[in-house]
């Protein structure tokens, strides 16, 4: 947010008073608190040099990485961007076990670039509590403590240590006042995690997606409420706290605030480490379109760049550091189609829709609204038109590897044996596998060589299994 100096100074002073009487300030605010997640799970992405140049041209203040890549960190030197680096989940236990390992990691991944590269956050793991690895849960805070000791050892006090968590760290989120942490996570793990954040004045980093909450029940949830569209006739009053909510994001954020309060920690600042809206997805994923993505992200930026800060009903007037997900679509991410369509830019650097991270622009163009009604009918999963036999073969082998008859109709003499081609056999195998395992979490992806279709690919006596939504 670009402001005149005098106005900006008044805002800083006012916000400082807010910190004194509400939350402890977790960082030195520069009033530009919008960042971008720079993920790189794609085989068609622009170079780091081009990507950083584009992030700068978008007027982002922060960039969050999913590793500590040497090339990227070198290119970030002198850019002025504030940087969050990440330690992979499989490194957590090693760092937790030995201070020398933590010191070595810090020397190689932070000190080698700092302070030329403005590293501001070390994120230990990613959504650790979303994985059923209890040992990693217990190792998380010890690893964070060792890294904090390393920072102190090298006299660095401007870098915060944290760990992004997903909303599934809560077992209750609604109404917000009933927010509480999952009971399967040992209380000593949650308590030590919160105690570390509180004691170091770090953030509770939260990956938060109203899209997933809305799309799980689109018939009974107001889309505008999820898109942060403020409407007088669309509010929710928490029956226990009496707080009034005008959007789903505030509800989700406050459920975490209440959960922390129940655990005895009222003053830990929340930062949004990931949020956004997909601009495309699979046929069975409603609401994933460019219009909704533009509306959500524009409203998000407007909310987070408003001064004085809006905060949330439970924490009014508090600024929220926010990282939008993500810079590009990442075509190698597994899972449903939305996983690969969160990008703000295409691979040529063109925006999917106009977006001003400073929150000061008037938008000249908007994508056309589309239907957000969930698809009803049958779906099949077939080989993508551009998939080669080389890529289809291992996917076909995977789908047919199971002994539950997935590919039994492809055997010689069976109704789907002909036509004899990798493409034809793969299409049947994909549909058969997806129909059997969709409810267990399988997606129509198969490493990027499959796609959904509403056109029945059955032929003759060969009937393709389908999914009905």
What would the keywords be for this entry?
disordered N terminus; 469 residues; 3-stranded antiparallel sheet; alpha/beta; 13% strand; 9-stranded parallel sheet
Plain-language structure description:
- Helix content is 33%, strand content 13%.
- The model is unreliable at 1-30 (pLDDT under 50).
- Strand 12 (269-275), helix 11 and strand 13 form a beta-alpha-beta unit.
- With 469 residues, the chain is an alpha/beta fold.
- It has a nine-stranded parallel beta sheet. Strands 15-14-16 form a three-stranded antiparallel beta sheet.
- The chain starts with a helix and ends with a strand.
- The radius of gyration is 24 Å and the shape is globular.
- It has helices at 5-21, 48-57, 70-76, 92-97, 99-111, 134-153, 187-200, 210-215, 223-226, 248-262, 290-305, 389-399, 422-437, and strands spanning 34-38, 62-65, 82-87, 118-124, 160-162, 165-166, 170-172, 180-181, 203-207, 236-237, 244-245, 269-275, 322-324, 378-383, 450-453, 467-468.
């Amino acid at each position: 947010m670009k402001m005149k100096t005098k106005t900006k100074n008044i805002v800083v002073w006012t916000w400082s008073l807010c910190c004194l009487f509400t939350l402890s300030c977790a960082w030195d605010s520069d009033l530009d608190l919008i960042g971008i997640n720079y993920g790189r799970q794609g085989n068609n992405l622009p170079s780091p040099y081009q990507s950083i140049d584009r992030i700068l041209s978008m007027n982002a203040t922060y960039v969050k990485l999913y590793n500590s890549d040497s090339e990227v960190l070198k290119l970030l030197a002198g850019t002025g961007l504030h940087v969050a680096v990440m330690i992979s989940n499989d490194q957590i236990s090693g760092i937790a076990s030995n201070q020398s390992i933590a010191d070595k990691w810090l020397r190689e991944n932070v000190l080698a670039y700092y302070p030329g590269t403005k590293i501001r956050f070390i994120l230990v793991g990613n959504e650790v509590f979303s994985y059923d690895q209890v040992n990693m849960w217990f190792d998380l805070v010890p690893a964070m403590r060792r890294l904090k000791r390393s920072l102190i050892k090298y006299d660095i006090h401007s870098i915060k240590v944290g760990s992004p968590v997903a909303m599934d760290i809560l077992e209750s989120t609604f109404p917000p006042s009933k927010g509480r942490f999952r009971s399967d996570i040992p209380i000593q793990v949650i308590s030590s995690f919160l105690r570390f954040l509180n004691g170091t004045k770090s953030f509770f980093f939260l990956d938060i997606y109203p899209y997933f909450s809305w799309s799980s029940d689109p018939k009974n949830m107001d889309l505008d409420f999820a898109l942060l569209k403020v409407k007088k006739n669309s509010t929710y009053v928490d029956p226990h706290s009496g707080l009034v909510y005008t959007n789903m994001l505030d509800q989700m954020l406050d459920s975490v605030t209440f959960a922390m309060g129940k655990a005895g920690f009222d003053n830990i600042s929340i930062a949004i480490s990931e949020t956004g809206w997909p601009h495309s997805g699979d046929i069975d994923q409603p609401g994933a379109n460019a219009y909704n993505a533009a509306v959500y992200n524009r409203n998000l930026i407007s909310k987070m760049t408003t001064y004085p800060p809006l905060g949330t009903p439970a924490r009014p007037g508090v600024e929220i550091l926010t990282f939008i997900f993500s810079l590009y679509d990442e075509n190698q991410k597994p899972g449903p189609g939305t996983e690969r369509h969160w990008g703000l830019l295409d691979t040529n650097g063109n925006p999917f829709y106009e977006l001003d991270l400073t929150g000061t622009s008037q938008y000249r163009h908007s994508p056309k609204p589309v239907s957000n009604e969930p698809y009803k009918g049958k779906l099949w999963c077939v080989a993508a038109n551009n998939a080669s036999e080389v890529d289809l073969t291992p996917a076909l082998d995977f789908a047919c590897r199971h002994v539950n008859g997935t590919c039994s109709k492809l055997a010689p003499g069976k109704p789907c044996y002909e036509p004899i081609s990798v493409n034809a056999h793969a299409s049947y195998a994909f549909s058969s596998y997806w129909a059997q395992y969709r409810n267990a979490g399988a997606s129509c992806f198969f490493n990027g060589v499959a796609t959904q279709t509403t056109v029945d690919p059955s032929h003759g006596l060969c009937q393709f299994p389908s999914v009905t939504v």
